[in-house]
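We modelled the chain as a single entity of 308 amino acids. Its sequence is:
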Amino acid sequence: MRVVFAGTPAAAVPALRALLVSRHEVVGALTRPDAPRGRGRTMSTSAVADVAAEHGLPVLKPASPKDPEFQAELRGLNPDCCPVVAYGAVLPQSALDIPPHGWVNLHFSVLPAWRGAAPVQRAVIAGDEVTGATTFRIVKELDAGPTYGLCTETIRPDDTAGTLLGRLAEHGAGLLVATLDGIEDGSLEARPQPADGVSFAPKLSVEEAQVRWSEPAFAVDRLIRGCTPAPGAWTVVDGARLKLGPVSLRPAEAPLAPGELATSRTAVRVGTGTHPVELGDVQPQGKPRMPAADWARGVRSSAAALGT
């Protein structure tokens, strides 16, 4: 099949690379426009745009997929199907109708669970034991289209949203290629999603990423891992934000009040609603990441507790 691949971040790259070495002909790529990134906020192309350019593919970067000029360009590429991984914009029906086999999305959950923008983060925060990836045909309703196939992935106790997404992106790439194979040869038929088990995964806000130390230790741990690497979990020390990397559970340690700090030469423990946790790396405002023990040596003695 002739395909135009739609995707933007690094998590979409394994699928694009898998398609480039598959039997399908990738005739173009659709991605979000260049955007400011990094500390310097310099304008940068997306990860998908970079890989597409490496392979000499036409790269479409419309401000909106509703743009008639973009849709005319897409028709000119004459795709049979448009595979999608984390493109990042809502597709209008006029664009969905262009390829005969539609737009096939690789979504990083076992649908109908965790429809939305942050399925991996929400699964980690919720304490799910298993997640996965699903291929489905895009329809107007959010992530509600009929499904073609799925793969599952165990969520490990030390997984962050980043590490889990990395594995799902790799495994899901093979699933997406197999789905296109089955659509092309007629061996796959899309089936409606179950009506039961629907849950939603809206994008995580910075406010949601604030740690509340009155929560149980397991909830603190899950929130921090689910917010790593983005948007980044945080707390408040002396009125300033402190970003937090993953923590270690310390159920055998002496109890501390929620947010109370206990420091030693090599470790920093914080009280929660149950038992303490030990901080890993932290990042004060305007400074690089560092081990929590190094940070604690420079904290004023008045900062005896973290914001709860």
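As a brief sanity check on the tokenised model: Residues 2-185 form a domain with the Rossmann fold fold (CATH 3.40.50.170). The chain has a mean pLDDT of 95.
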